Amino acid sequence: MDPRDTRSSYVPLPTTADEAATASAASSRRRLNLLVGATSSLLLLLSLLGAALYISPHNGADHEPSLLKSNEQVQPTILEPAVSRGPSDGVSEKVSAVRSPAGSFPWSNSMLQWQRTGFHFQPEKNWMNDPNGPVYYKGWYHLFYQYNPDAAVWGNIAWGHAVSHDMVHWYHLPLAMVPDQWYDINGVWTGSATVGPDGQVYMLYTGSTNASVQVQNLAIPSDLSDPLLLHWTKYEGNPVLTPPSNLLPKDFRDPTTAWFDNSDSTWRIAIGSKDDSHAGIALVYKTKDFISYEQIPGLLHKVAKTGMWECVDFYAVSASSSSANQAIDTTVLATMSNGQDDVRHVLKASMDDDRHDYYAVGRYNAINNKWKPDNDEIDVGIGLRYDWGIFYASKTFFDPVKQRRILWGWIGETDSEKADIRKGWASLMSLPRTVLFDVKTKSNLLQWPVEEVDQLRLNSTTFTNLTIDTASYFRLSASRAAQLDIVAEFEIKNTTLEKAVEADEEYSCSTGGGAAGSGLFGPFGFLVLADKSLTEQTAVYFYISRSSNGSLKTHFCHDETRSSKATDIVKKVVGNVVPVLSGETLTMRILVDHSIVESFAQGGRSCITSRVYPTKAIDDAAGVYLFNNATAGPITAKSITIWEMGSSNNRSFNGNDGEP
Ligand code: DQQ
């Protein structure tokens, strides 16, 4: 039978209230009968019975009456203009895209309190943005970050500081640096750490001067014997670098960690900017002592029309299959400077224009100071992103303990500034992610939460060989669904895939109708932070599209549009194509932590982070559902494991004995 014929019995997930409300009760009943009568559904019911000890099954039809009743319109509100923060000071927008609407949602304190995370890093209060100068020093992982000590909005930027033995449990330390000199009085902005072979730590950061000029400054620890690096001394001769005359004084910022070049025994750093044709550019300087610098002629790289490059990051990854798990310490090894086949160089820039972090894999030639992408079509700013959701101004560092490269990104808010002020905090940090070159695809990175995150896993529930029929969803047991780690592997039978008769190659996450849409092979996946009536739910799913030549493309998406009944929030459908190689099953990992959902597909080839602000699906009312809206046939979840996650219980520095 042509699979399209089955569409008469198709019951999609609820869309918006108006769509749901137009469906008559009579037609609901008819679809229910059709579903129950269908052989496939009987098989589904049998398979569900088999799993009855673990799950409480409901198919879509069971819930329909309440869905019809309670689903709400999720439409953008007409928003008031708001005060823009950042651009006038010479950095990208630091206000969420939501302006405080005239009639904003009546947030209760308990709803707002619930949004604080359990195991993602965030300061105790106030505003934070970019991760700065991550470094391992004498037994501690140090994380510095852009911080406003006075308010939950961007401004008065100082460096917050926290330390951890495992990057999961943190101690909040006193501010590391504050704007107190003419060369950083308008903000101690983003910077990076370099540890020299003699153990000296060099912190290079951007200062916004009393005239709002962007200059680079040096700070070093006041006491290298202090593993907590509590005190920092700004170099008396700061600034060490001022903007070159051909660039705008507000477009010269965010120095990278230095890499060592054997050819002339100098350290090199890159700094982002833009030229007068609006091309994003990275400049390179060399130094022997971190005090005197010389600009290397030419640019490391430039991409037309990409605008200002913030927070450039540049590092080497191993491309050899045999040592793929080995990250490369570019401060010790000379691997940045040669063109071996088994080394690739990653260039990342945070695009001021669209506030996303783009990277490309390529090769660096230190002799002519040029980096070239392996594939021009996916150059920096026009191709791959670290994350297809909200994730910006990221930075990596090399962990000498476990010989790995670790990435952190700033996860902003997508609610209103008004709500942030009421919460008393804004923004948080992504989970620390290990970064490796994908030796299978040879075209992208793999990002994965550091293994230390796993220690927070508490009790788990595993389901195996769960078949989910078309147009179905059911609840999976998870009692503390606000903090979860979900790992799942899906399979679509070849016979199902072969049913494809029409191409839908135009599919994309953002235009494909979200989780409530339907195609032959998707969407299917999870609804997290979902209440029983599914009026609030955040969908994490795959959708397989087919091109006219028969090839399949797998899309990995988040649908935030039903994540909250509140309207003063940005809610989108986000995601992208994820590479799936022949013979691979589809895998995803989802970390739910109150107002953040951070997901990884195919072992980290594609990542998506969403901020979500449910009003009903909180505390005990939050649940997890499996759903399948694919019309071509059932999907098999070969295995699903759901762990409830503990909290990292970060603590304040006690200040008495110098040890947290
Ligand atoms: N954040 C810093 C800048 C950087 C921007 C200012 C990126 O140094 O360019 O808070 O978010």
Automatic annotation (TrEMBL):
Subcellular location, record wording: Vacuole
Gene Ontology cellular component terms for the protein in this record: vacuole
TM ranges: 34-55
Primary localization: other
One GO biological process term: carbohydrate metabolic process
Family according to the record: Belongs to the glycosyl hydrolase 32 family.
PANTHER family xrefs: BETA-FRUCTOFURANOSIDASE, INSOLUBLE ISOENZYME CWINV1-RELATED
Name of the protein described by the UniProt record: Beta-fructofuranosidase
Organism: Rhynchospora breviuscula
Lineage, highest ranks first: Eukaryota, Viridiplantae, Streptophyta, Embryophyta, Tracheophyta
